[in-house]
Amino acid sequence: MTTPLPKVIFQDADAQTAPGSSNKHVSVDPEGNHLVDLEFIEEPLGVTAEQGQGFLRVEFGEAIGPDSRYEVARKLGWGMNSSIWLALDRKENKYVAIKALKGYATNLAKRGITWELPALERIASEPPPAEFKSTHWPRLLDHFVHPGSGEDGEHLCLVTDVLGGDVEELQVKVAKKKGLPLPLAKRILLHTLRGLFHLHSCSIVHTDLKHDNIMFDLGSQTQADIAALLKADPSRRHPPEESWNCTVEAAVSQPLPLPSLSDAMKRTYLVSDLGCAQPSNVHTFEAVTTPVLRAPELVLKGPWNEKVDIWAFGCLIFELLTRRSLFVYRPEGDVDAEMSHLWQILAFTCERMKREQVEASKLGTQYFNIPADPSGTFCKLKRLIVRDRPFSELLKEYKVLSEEEVIATARIMQRCLRLDPKDRATAKELLRDPWWQVIE
């Protein structure tokens, strides 16, 4: 899988092309404005917090945090709002993971727009159910604010246990982009559901449940194994790149080795990355969840709660088994992506949208006709005719399950993927489903 280079385009009246640079280009638009076009190998270092970035710049071996407690060892990876670092906790003499929010994201956290730190603190303060043998959510060990470099801004740093990787990487690199074996998929999903149950019990909605936000633990790997890996495969940096007003050298992302599929059956899985988490009763922003995993109430911009996580979970059942998205989010001819998505939702769930749900949504009447008869219960989708295609039919197409398994899998998907959030099962109810028999 080829990842496109991160690209940032800015306007700068005095911009000039850097001599010998291959990643910084300057052009002039029709209005005479100079545009700086930057392409980066990894995260856009040197682009400021004010410009929406401000990623952490740190040296290997540098000590950060209170009393210089954490010695940076290598970069494990990065995402839209943060980079993840392996560090040695010099006080406890063990390795930890540090998630360093970029300057722009730290500003959002300070303003209370994002809620990751309070969410981590809340789930840490609530005891897990006694029947759970492991915790299936991140364990916050420490947090601090790092001052940052230049105009990068400050970095909120969240210290957690080191994890072994995410399910997306496991499926791409170990399962070779195929669906996961049913027992492994069930184990991952059961642990994910336990994590969701704890989050929802703490009145937290994850809002961004997907493959790469489900992580797994280190299994049998020890602290000595990590130290040996660092010695055998030293941390590296990419060649210099031009940035906004400086030259940068990004650290190479060097995640820990992935387990085999058989070893993956022994790992514990966690619901991770609470960067988009929100309290159940307060929504600080509305654009939540990856489009293909959005519940109908999100598509229609209606009231929503923790049941949006249950919808996404139902979609993930299909995705882990088939390596295909249940829904496709894209325009079809003159039909926009949202209308096409809603058509698929109605066809696959074999349900029809309730009048009360349409009327309670900002975009309800944009996509549905309200019945003229006041007693009419259901609304028809505008323009498109819906023909039912149940989940069992979709699962059969991929030939990855037996007939009996298809029926059982379609049944639990149906419990998650109900149009009306009130009809969807809760995480607690789903944990009692017979689909999990003999799975630990």
TrEMBL record:
Reaction catalysed by this enzyme? L-seryl-[protein] + ATP = O-phospho-L-seryl-[protein] + ADP + H(+); L-threonyl-[protein] + ATP = O-phospho-L-threonyl-[protein] + ADP + H(+)
Per the UniProt entry, the Enzyme Commission number(s) are 2.7.11.1
Offer one example of a GO biological process linked to this entry.
regulation of mRNA processing
Residues annotated for ATP binding in this entry: K99
Q: What class of enzyme is it?
A: transferase
- What is a single molecular function from GO for this protein? ATP binding
SMART domains documented for this protein: S_TKc
Q: Where is the Protein kinase domain?
A: 70-436
Q: Which UniProt keywords apply?
A: ATP-binding, Kinase, Nucleotide-binding, Serine/threonine-protein kinase, Transferase
Q: Which family does it belong to?
A: Belongs to the protein kinase superfamily.
Q: What PANTHER family would the database entry show? A: PROTEIN KINASE DOMAIN-CONTAINING PROTEIN-RELATED
Protein name listed in UniProt: non-specific serine/threonine protein kinase
Name the gene for this chain. SRPK_2
